[in-house]
Design a protein that fits this description.
Blueprint: H1 6-21, H2 26-33, H3 37-49, E1 53-55, E2 62-64, H4 80-98, E3 102-107, E4 112-117, E5 134-135, H5 141-149, H6 152-162, H7 177-190, E6 193-194, E7 209-218, E8 221-231, H8 237-264
Antiparallel strand pairs: 1-2, 3-4, 3-8, 4-5, 6-7, 7-8
Helix pairs in contact: 1-3, 4-8, 5-7
Length: 265
């Protein structure tokens, strides 16, 4: 009889549980698996070190980075871990410097996806960023920042592809292609994108926030964007950008350099 490896079996049980649930706290895992918390901490740290599990900064929940056929509720976006590794320490430093939090987004075909946030580290209460929440390309600051980094032909193709989509498409904001291209021209000129006035976010608690964003890239590819969020009652967009845009742009450049190095390896 082959002797079972108890640690391996327990590690797999953790991964299968995370795959089913999507995101869990230590207490959740303890209830679901019956494993002692001390054992869970030890195994989770090993899985994190081996880059099989990740603990998000925004909500402190654990998520598996591997896919189990017929189990996984959702597949992690391609490149998510590299972007998170490069962006989190740098956006934390940005939040410590300016006070206001930053959300980190990945660009996907139909929408932007938030992969982490420094909201928990901010001195200002702006609500908790929900990991894996999607926001529109055409209304969010991060989506518009990414669009502005594409060629005009790529923007037109994205517009036409998403035009029939009432949730994620431009029609939701009454945007025809000339109006979109005019907005893109303004973003390119000013060096950042702001959330569209007509966009109050996919999440009700974020509707009282302003946001500015710049894209993050690696070797010429637009991977996502970094945003800085603040309460609408604090300052209008242009006044806030005057104060903090340079720091946001410097952070994005630092993230881009880190991503370029990762892809070169």
């Amino acid at each position: 009889m082959v002797k079972e490896n108890r640690s391996l079996d327990r590690g797999i049980a953790i991964l299968e549980t995370l795959a089913r649930q999507g995101a869990m706290s230590l207490a959740d895992l303890h209830r679901a698996t019956g494993l002692p918390k001390s054992t869970l901490r030890r195994l989770l740290q090993t899985l994190i070190t081996r880059r099989i599990v990740r603990r998000s900064l925004a909500d402190q929940l654990y998520r598996t980075l591997i896919v189990f056929p017929d189990i996984s509720a959702e597949v992690m976006p391609k490149g998510m871990l590299q972007v998170a590794d490069a962006a989190i320490p740098r956006t934390l430093a940005l939040t410590q410097a300016i006070g206001w939090p930053s959300d980190i987004h990945i660009r996907e075909a139909r929408a932007m996806r938030i992969i982490d946030s420094t909201r928990q580290a901010s001195q200002f209460q702006v609500g908790q960023g929900r990991i894996n929440r999607r926001v529109t390309h055409f209304g969010s600051a991060t989506g518009l920042a990414c669009l502005a980094m594409l060629s005009d032909a790529e923007i037109r193709a994205t517009y036409e592809t998403l035009k029939p989509d009432l949730t994620w498409g431009p029609v939701r904001f009454g945007l025809d292609l000339p109006a979109l291209m005019q907005r893109i021209g303004e973003i390119r000129e000013q060096g950042y994108a702001a959330r569209s006035p007509a966009y109050l976010s996919e999440h009700e608690r974020d509707s009282d926030l302003h946001a500015i964003a710049v894209a993050i890239t690696a070797q010429g590819r637009v991977l996502g964007a970094l945003s800085v969020l603040w309460l609408r009652s604090y300052k209008p967009v242009d006044a806030f950008a005057d104060l903090h845009l340079a720091a946001l742009q410097a952070t994005a450049r630092d993230v881009n350099r880190a991503l370029d190095q990762v892809l070169d390896e």
